[in-house]
Design brief:
This protein is an alpha+beta fold. It is built from nine helices and ten strands. Strand 8 and strand 9 form a beta hairpin. The protein starts with 8 loop residues before the first helix and ends with a strand.
């Protein structure tokens, strides 16, 4: 079972000398050979344990590499000069180039002059404070695509590296801008409409009244909100407007009726009121009525 080939030159020389000059020490030689064999077995066990540990480390490294490479967020590591040292696939897509061609290039080179100062200040702040920092700036990829990113970073002062996550917020900001523009357009339409646009709950109480109520009825919007529309309708027309509102609620139908509504100065104005129900699912769980009131005869 023992392998002579496993012995080094010194051990072989000692073994040969012992066998030739001291045959009576054969038991000692056997003991030494046994010890050598045991040591060999122990080394083999240790080697296998090391190999198993190495395999686990490689598996862990591969899992980390996959998480890093295929993460939906852009990750980039830059050195003290701002040059890119590592970048994942999302980062390469953000900057519009292949990963390998980005290594060694300046991250600031992808920012416009106005934003470059913000980016460079962010990189300096990471190293100077040693604390996690957040900043927003724009980057323009090699493909010309401009992205607004939220950068979150942490520095490794000992290595002079800064590890940064870049979250592309372009779509979200565009949606916010579109929403704000839409709201502004709606407000402009409501503010300048000649018709009174109002919203009521199921009992007919005003929840909203457009500014045109000043021209039609002489009231400020705040004077109508919280009050029932039926309190302003001529007594002879209340059943008509109530039936119109009630009919609009369950069926989400559109109904147009004529009724007289009391002006703030006391006289009655003839209006055509078109009402439409808004179901609860579209209104945070509360059904309501939208009414469009237009003056008849000037």
């Amino acid at each position: 079972m023992n392998k002579i080939s496993d012995l080094d030159d010194a051990a072989l020389a000692w073994l040969l000398d012992t066998l030739e000059k001291h045959p009576e020490r054969s038991d000692e030689v056997k003991r030494v050979m046994h010890d050598l064999f045991v040591h060999q077995v122990e080394l083999e066990q240790q080697n296998r344990e090391l190999q198993a540990t190495q395999e686990k480390l490689e598996e862990s490294r591969d899992r980390y590499a996959d998480l890093y490479d295929f993460a939906p967020v852009a990750y980039v590591t830059v050195d003290s000069t701002g040059s890119i040292q590592e970048i994942n696939l999302a980062g390469a897509e953000l900057l519009g180039e292949e990963r390998q061609s980005l290594i060694g290039t300046s991250l600031a080179g992808f920012s416009e002059p106005g934003n470059r100062r913000v980016l460079l200040a962010f990189l300096r702040r990471l190293l100077e404070t040693g604390d996690p920092c957040t900043e927003v700036f724009s980057l323009t990829g090699a493909d010309g695509r401009r992205s607004i990113v939220r950068a979150q970073g942490r520095a490794d002062p000992n290595a002079g590296l800064r590890h940064i996550a870049l979250v592309d917020t372009t779509a979200a900001r565009q949606a916010e801008h579109a929403l704000a523009l839409s709201e502004a357009n709606y407000k402009m339409l409501l503010d300048h409409s000649t018709d009174l646009i109002s919203r009521h709950d199921a009992a007919g109480v005003y929840l909203y009244a457009s500014p045109s109520c000043r021209r039609l009825l002489g009231y400020e919007p705040e004077e109508l909100i919280g009050r029932s529309v039926y309190g302003f309708v001529h007594p002879d027309d209340r059943d008509t407007i109530r039936a119109s509102f009630d009919g609009a609620m369950p069926a989400s139908s559109v109904d147009a009726v004529q009724c007289r509504m009391r002006h703030k100065d006391g006289h009655y104005t003839l209006l055509e009121v078109t009402s439409s129900g808004v179901n609860a699912a579209a209104n945070d769980g509360d059904a309501s009525i939208i009414a469009l009131s237009s003056a008849i005869g000037g």
